[in-house]
Design a protein that fits this description.
The complex is a heterodimer of chains A (292) and B (248). Chain A is mostly helical and 292 residues long. Chain A is 72% helix and 1% strand. Chain A has one domain. In chain A, helix 10 packs across helix 11. A six-stranded mixed beta sheet of chain B has the order 6-7-8-3-9-10, with helices on both faces. The structure holds adenosine-5'-triphosphate (ATP) and magnesium ion.
């Protein structure tokens, strides 16, 4: 595999974790957050700081990133989830905008606009795993473990409770579900995974800055989930692969000037999401007929 | 017989609308009480007040003699008060089996307590509820794909499985065909026979007179009458209100 493809595969694995984690919120919890990149970012900064000051251990970065994002999401979820669905989207948009500013301004922690540079190459329990193949293998192992865990939770009573709340909050309550706790758990779980993905991202890139954690990124992650198929195991992976490969594929297409690539890409995402919502609201991996 | 659920002086205003005005209600174990009244009489609101889905202005609710001051739907469910909804509110995107199973998994943590043994018991309760409501063959179908009568029975299966001793059913039989209606009535009779206190809202007076042990007549948020079905249904004043307002 060429270095380019390995790099793409590493990113793909990390973004698969991200979309998988957002799917817990959107697909199972019916909680639409456009601030997922914030938790990805918090995890990335935490992972970067751990790598810079403690050790560039993959697991340490992932756990530290997950912990930081989990704690922040817990603090934010309790008040935020009190508002109704439509307003939650707005609240999360607000959070995303505040966070982008904080990421840019908090020089001491985030390195400001320049970001954190010189993150040492990744290791695992003291062993050097800076070779792309090794790092990719570790990332894939983490992805598979997380997928298995999330799948088990979503197939079990927790997933059923979340889906029940999504389908009818009042009926779920009438059967004893404590809605705020369920939603908070879903948000915190999703954000821990996003933070862990951030920790891996910091090591993969060896530098991080605010540009990776903006609203654009949140929208991209959401597009991956929705295009792939909400509430399914493989949908987010499919969406991730499609949306990561799209820019690469486009750059091989003749006739598109490189300066226009970004615009063409945005246009294609937008069109794809609109068409999907009309013809296949469950996403590519979802059921053919839309949910009622 | 002493009532298992008693309501005293429940009241609720929505702006200028007095939806429920000082209603008393007793639901004794083993009896089927029909809540009857014209549209907008406050029947659904009364259920909402009892379960805490809507906060009452005033009034008290007692369960087996204990007053329940701060009611929430989740807490009432845990205390064995189950309710259905006029518009069913099934878990549309879930299977029939999952609809019932999740109704008896109230724990909010990542898993339910009790391990495999408790899970096996819940699966069995689910199977029994589906069998009793005639939905076993449809266990894997999505709730959204069910036919009308099947949806009504699924709404009932969720309640059955909980083992709740008090059922508040909001128009559970409306629109059922005669065969389904007979099945439905038999089911309610059976569980009342086993001691469940049932309160059902029903517009069809044939069903009410065939099924109910007692009628509570509600109009404009007030309880106008209460008693044996034959006595209530023969009262010309009540009939005038009931049919008059229903035609209007
Ligand atoms: N959440 C609410 N907000 C404002 N008004 C309400 C609300 N719920 C009920 N009402 C009003 O309270 C009154 C009683 O309504 P309710 O739904 O309890 O009647 P009902 O007896 O169940 O009628 P139906 O037979 O049509 O179901 C109506 O005037 C209704 O418009
Ligand atoms: Mg009603």
């Amino acid at each position: 595999m060429s270095a380019y493809l390995l790099n793409l595969a590493e990113l793909g694995t990390i973004f698969a974790l991200l979309s998988l984690s957002l799917n817990v919120l959107i697909g199972y919890g019916g909680i639409f957050s456009v601030a997922h990149a914030v938790f990805f970012g918090v995890g990335a900064y935490a992972g970067a700081q751990i790598a810079l000051h403690l050790a560039p251990d993959v697991l340490l970065a992932a756990l530290g990133g997950g912990l930081a994002a989990g704690v922040l999401s817990f603090a934010l979820a309790l008040p935020a989830l009190r508002v109704r669905g439509e307003y939650f989207v707005v609240a999360s948009l607000g959070l995303q905008m505040v966070a982008t500013t904080v990421f840019t301004e908090a020089q001491g922690i985030t390195g400001g606009y320049g970001g954190l540079v010189g993150i040492p190459p990744p290791s695992l329990f003291g062993l050097d795993i800076s070779s792309p193949r090794l790092f990719l293998s570790v990332c894939i192992a983490i992805l598979l473990a997380v997928m298995a865990g999330v799948h088990a939770l979503m197939r079990g009573s927790f997933g059923r409770s979340l889906m029940a709340v999504r389908d009818s909050e009042s009926a779920a309550e009438a059967f004893g579900k404590i809605v705020p706790i369920l939603k908070t758990l879903a948000v915190v779980l999703g954000c821990i995974i996003a933070g862990a993905a951030g920790g891996l991202f910091a090591l993969q890139m060896s530098f991080v800055n605010v540009e990776s954690f903006t609203l654009d990124q949140s929208v991209l992650i959401m597009a991956m989930v929705i295009i792939g198929g909400v509430g399914t195991l493989l949908g987010p992976l499919l969406g991730t692969a499609l949306l990561l490969l799209l820019p690469a594929a486009l750059s091989f297409l003749p006739g598109i000037p490189p300066t226009e690539l970004g615009a063409v890409q945005q246009g294609i995402y937008g069109l794809a999401m609109t068409l999907l919502m009309i013809f296949r609201p469950g996403g590519i991996a979802g059921r053919a007929e839309g949910r009622r | 017989m002493s009532p298992i659920l008693s309501v005293r002086g429940l009241a609720k205003h929505f702006g200028g609308v007095a939806a429920v005005q000082g209603v008393d209600l007793d639901l004794p174990a083993g009896l089927i009480t029909a809540l009857v009244g014209p549209n907008g009489a406050g029947k659904t609101t009364l259920f909402n007040l009892i379960t805490g889905a809507v906060e009452a202005d005033t009034g008290r609710v007692m369960l087996a003699g204990t007053e329940l001051a701060r009611r929430t739907p989740a807490r009432m469910a845990r205390l064995g008060v189950a309710r259905s909804f006029q518009d069913l509110r099934l878990f549309q995107s879930m299977s029939v089996q999952a609809n019932v199973l999740t109704a008896i998994e109230p724990h909010a943590w990542f898993w339910q307590p009790g391990g495999r043994r408790a899970h096996a018991r819940r699966l069995q309760a689910t199977e029994m509820a589906l069998a009793e409501t005639g939905l076993s063959a449809l266990a894997d179908a999505l709730a959204a794909e069910l036919a009308y009568a099947e949806r009504k029975f699924l709404s009932l299966a969720r309640i059955l499985a909980t083992g709740a001793q008090i059922w508040l059913l909001d128009e559970p039989a409306s629109g059922l065909d005669p065969a389904s209606r007979a099945r439905f009535s038999a089911l309610l009779r059976k569980h009342a026979g086993q001691g469940v206190a049932i309160c059902l809202v029903e517009h069809n007076l044939d069903i009410v007179s065939a099924l109910a042990d007692r009628i509570v007549f509600l109009d404009q948020g007030r309880k106008l009458a209460e008693g044996e079905p034959q006595a209530i249904l023969r009262d010309p004043a009540l009939a005038a209100i009931y049919f008059g307002e229903r035609r209007a």
